[in-house]
Amino acid sequence: MEKGKERENAVIKEKCNRLKAPGVSGHSQKNDDNTGGEGHIKPVPTKTKKKGTSNMTRSVSEDKQSVTQVKKRQCTGNIEGLLSRLHLQDKKKKMSPADLLKICPPVKQIHDTSEKDLARTFLQKLSMLDYRARYIPVRQDDADVSYSQTVTISDSDDLDALFSTSVDSQSKQFHLHPMDVQMAVFHCSDSFLKQNIITKLSQCQYALPLLVPDPVTMDIECPLWTFRQIQKTWKKTQIKDNSHAMTMKTMPICKAETPMVSFFRLGSLPVSKSQLMNTLINDRHSTFFHRNCPGSTKCRLLMDGVAEIAWYCPAGKPNDSFTDCIAFCNLHGDALSFEKQREILTEKASVTVVLVPTLEKGQKGTTVIQDLFKSPNPLIILVADTDCGALQILIDAQSTDEISSILKSYDEKWTEVLTLKKKHDKSDLLTSKQTELEQISKTLQSATFGLEHIFREMGQIYEAHRAVQTQNKLTAWSKYPKLAADLMISGHPVELMDGDAGHVPLTWISSLIKELIKKLGDQRVFVLSVLGVQSSGKSTMLNAMFGLKFAVSAGRCTKGAFMQLVKVSEEIKKDFQFDYFLVVDTEGLRALELESNDTLHHDNELATFVVGLGNMTLINIFGENPADMQDVLQIVVQAFMRMKKVKLSPSCVFVHQNVTDIAAAEKNMDGKRRLQEKLDQMAQLAAKEEVCDADCFSDVIAFDVQTDVKYFAQLWEGSPPMAPPNPGYSESIQELKNIILSKAKCSPGITLSHFNRKIQDLWKALMNEQFVFSFKNTLEIAVYRKLEVQYGNWTWVLRSNMLTIENQLHTRIENEELDKVERSDLFKEMSKTSEKIKKDMSKYFEDDKDKEILVQWRGQFENKIKEFQEELVRGAIKKLDEIIQQKKACKKLDDKKTDFEDKLLQKSEELAHQLKDKAKDEEELKKQFDGVWSDLMRELTRDTQPIKDINLEDDLANILHILGFEWGLIIDSKKSSKYKTISQVSDYTEYVVLHKHQNTRGQGFASQMYAYIEDKTEKLKCHFKGLLEHGDQGLIISLITSVENQSLHEIMKKPVTTRGYSPTYLQEVAQNVQRTVTEFEQNKNYDFKKEFTVDLLLYVFDRAAIWLSQSHKKFTVNNDAHTYLESKKSQYYNIFRSYCNGNSSAVVFGEMICEKLKVSIVEAVCNKTAIDLAGHMRCTLPVFNGNRLNLEKHLLKSLAENEDFKGFINYIQKPRTQVEAFIEEKVNTHMLGEHKDKALSILRKNVEDINKLVIHALFDTTNNVKTQRGDIDMWAKEFSSFLKDKLTLDDIFCENFRDINNFDFLQETIEKGLVSITKTISQLSLDKMKEFRLRPDQILIDQLCNCCWETCPFCAAVCTNTMEDHLIKDNIDHSCPFHRSKAVNGVHYRNTKEISINFCTTEVASDRSFYPDGVSEELFLYKKYRTAGPRFANWSITPDEYTSKYWIWFVCKFKKRLEEHYGLSFTGCGEIPPKWTEFTKEEAIQSLDEMYRTR
């Protein structure tokens, strides 16, 4: 119903009236009989039927009746039976609304209803707008009722076996179809009740009957009057002035002007048409009843031939399927059987949709479709069978005649051209004819139309939508990949590369393969691709080998590339490691229609693409012409060469088709020899082209000419078109198939997801001119990143274990229980953890789903783990040896400690006895103790000199003066403090002086003028910008960083903690720095001023000052008697006061032990908590539980969130320093911020554990001493022995406590003290941990920062390789997944202030050039950046059009500050594009997640 106006309704009514429809043209309210002109359903008058009989008795007369008559009578009987079962057959007149306007028994909400109540229940539920009225469960009272059975009608003369005497005696009754109930009620209702029913159906969002055949006469009625009460509301959306205008409409639906879409089917289909329509209108509600609805049965009586109508009303929302109201008409049943309804719907439809099965030419359905093609209205044909054969037949039928005509024209024109050429006619006529021939050739290509063009259109529609809007379930286009996946699974080839555009639609293909994965799982496939010249029989060979459907006719040559799935059967599946073959067929190389200057490039591109995709490639060679062979081989060999360079290793088999005599062994041997020679020759040529070492083809790919070459007989036995296929060809096909299968058995194939990524990687790389440098195997990268995370986990377990071992050994050394650490002992201690890591690694490499990719790195990472463990052991031995050396260095003081302690105890006890009466006068006690303490200190240290504090500032000034720098310069530099930021200076111009020009005497005038102009230019440069180009600035920054790192490394090697500080340490380092600066100045056009060297040395020693001071302090504490005694003063004052209070020796001794325990427990708890906290944060904090890339992502997020420009600059120039500061900040935030409670719980648990250990040691010690009747010396020795591995205890001196013999009391005293100690330590501030040997931030820094820190020479992006020595040991280049705008690093155009904003990844894909530094006059192509010097040679920068939103935002956000920092401007070539300014900070931060998730 395209128009809703009354005149349009009248047209339909008139047509219905001509068909003897009993519908009305107007509405009369006189009586029910006149309204609508309808009467009772009347039986068909026949001689054998009595009027009014409800059960129709069938008999066969002596005259033969046609099968059609019998069917009609059977149908009438079935309808009578239906009405009888519904108790509708007794209605003398039709039901009216009055029948419902009665107080009847309520509809019971019971599980089912009997058949006799079904009609009444249906009407009652419908009147209450219960859309479940269609789905009323029926209780079968008759045991004979069953599902419908098919009755076969034969040509037998005797029909008695077919029909019985009555309907009731027929074979078992069928279940009632829900729509038969609805239509029976409809037919038995008068016009008013029909209108009520239709209105209620509409309110329930059900389809309404539009064309209704009379169940007996089959006349068609159009009950349009019943639609008059139906109102519809919708919102129409239109685009005006690039904005959406919305209009709300509400009107009677019969007056609405709406387009109409008619649906019907031809023949029987495996899918439901009505269900398909529901997905368009409302996929959550069955507007049209379909075969899968509850209660549906195969047998229905009243629905075939009924056309229903429903409307889609948009709500004005983004997910609307249509922007305006649309009517949908659905013809139930086979449209071939209902010609009248089909004609009406086709005539009135705006769009006709036909569902068809596979059809053959000549069938009635084909004729109907061909008639529909001639209609001016749009036609959509949906092939609802398991393949697209019908549609392909239709398409071929449409294009065959046209192609034949064009080919005929082409042949005639080609003959004319040849005739003119034979005459050597070079006139304009020949040129004209050739132009016409070229035009016909183009027409021929355009006329070739196949199913692939429809699929291509689907893909283009899908990609276009995806480019501008997000996908959701309600958009029709979003279902296209699912449909294509269904086709592919059913065995239909799908276009991989658009043959006309030479383009791979990556979004479409990716979505298609993802749908395949959803349906099949991420199955493994063996990819078999084929290459060869055009029309060489590639597709024919594949079709014959696997039963595929690739296009093979001469007029339909394959264009582009197609892929098709072939399932491995269950019988042989056990022999293979994959589930499917995925066959990729390609267009021919050297295709005539593609001949142009771009042909070779296109062929190389195609060959590289399909060879890269394939696990195996068939190279198809046709004929025996060496010239033809050479062209193909050159392309193929170059493709394999590229695969070798990007570490892909497919296999290949050569197929030599159309060989005249394949049985001649000698000839075949000669052919193989010539092929091998050609391949070797092509390999050498390709090696030059691709800059690769290869002397023969086997250097490029594993190839055996004896087994990897197959000769084929010609296809036809005789001359076509009447020649049969050659049986020898079939034999060759089978032999080749066996070869392929045998090779495939050794291959694991690849997963569909891997194949999907491979397509993306190969095609993106091919889009760049230099494939090898552009190729990025994203799956390999992702797998490697995941492996890096695992490597981090493994190394963390080893590091954590080593820290625990090191902690224990450190305690034993401090307790003088260990004086040498053996390497073998450490490995033995680590053996259990080491074995577990080995098992975990083996499991990961062997069981991970990407194990085939991982295998290439297994040996490397196993060696890395061994090296890491070796490094841990070396580091631990070094640290523990230092402790041992410190202990030895302290021996002299340690020997005196016993004497010191004895005298201190003795003096404290004596003084206490003297002052016993003044015990409560704290001030007097303190005064007296201080006096005695001073005398005692002088006495004990009479023969020793205190170790002096160091004065680094004076020492450094003296060293600088010794090196030749003036005192004034040294003092001025120190006062200015400029040296402290020397590593962050943006322009080092003020630190340098240009070399003077050479003497120009004796040179020509031109040379002197050139020198003069150049000198002026340099002065102008100095005035406007500075002397140094960006390259020089970068080199100076690198020099400062290198000097800083090397100097700190050298200083920290000095034995300051064991032997103390010496100024010679600084002097040695200063001389090295001066020498390095002098060497750097060589071959530069400038020298450093003295200020630079002075500031650099001040900066280096300022960085080293903290370490030197701390180390010297440790030395002093361990070796200076004065310091040692001062540290004991508070301890002995407490002993003294305890004696004054009258405490016994046991109490004093117990307090002394508690004091020693307190110091030791605090140290042990803090060290253990540092290890535990680091482990906790490593596992739970996202910032620490990934690889290096993950850490960088969180750092960049933090910098952006805080808009920390200083932090950004520090990260750009000194990335490691900034990362270490970031780790420290995050650890402190975690410990002291919202996670403080967790950190404290870890600390308290460790306090509790050590408390239990000490109590247990006390108990065992006391028991042992009591059992063996020991003394206080034995007690001290036993107690120390129990704790020697866990706590560092000072020596326990017992000389003054010999009188102690009540060890239970001693134990009790110490336990009381422990309660106080435990309480105090449990409330310890987490900051206290910073004072001890192990710190959580330093542990995490050691774990996360021992990696590569080289920066990109263009944009300063940091190499993200986890291995610090990857370049030297593994020969792996520096790389990072995301580069930056060069503006970030202050790169500018030479001799200008214009900053360069380009990304280096786009630069290396361009034809632009650059200067490698400020000195060089030689330009280098970005494409060949590796040739520009050592800084560039070891960097792998992959060409990429991707530009990071994050760094674009950074440049725009800090534009002014970048200009100030670098002394440059974003003008001219460096002007920021307006689009860059659109990105917000939130988008920039969000882009980090996207960036690091995909790389």
Detailed description of the structure:
The chain is an alpha/beta fold. It is built from 48 helices and 23 strands. Strands 12, 13, 14, 15, 16, 17, 18 and 19 form an 8-stranded mixed β-sheet that branches. The chain has a 7-stranded mixed β-sheet with strand order 4-3-8-9-7-10-11, sandwiched between helices. A two-stranded parallel sheet has the order 1-2. It is globular. Mean pLDDT is 78; it is low at 1-65, 146-171, 591-597 and 997-1026.
What descriptors fit this protein?
1495 residues, alpha/beta, 7-stranded mixed β-sheet, 48 helices, 23 strands, disordered N terminus
Largest sheet: 8 strands, mixed
Instruction: Indicate the structural class.
Output: alpha/beta
What proportion of the residues is helical, as a percent range?
40-55%
Instruction: Work out the strand percent.
Output: 5-15%
* Rg over alpha carbons: 47 Å
Overall morphology: globular
Could you tell me how far the N terminus lies from the C terminus, measured between alpha carbons in angstroms? 55 Å
Provide the residue-averaged pLDDT: 78
Task: Give the strand tally.
Answer: 23
Spans where pLDDT lies below 50 across 5 or more residues: 1-65, 146-171, 591-597, 997-1026
Tally of contiguous helical segments: 48
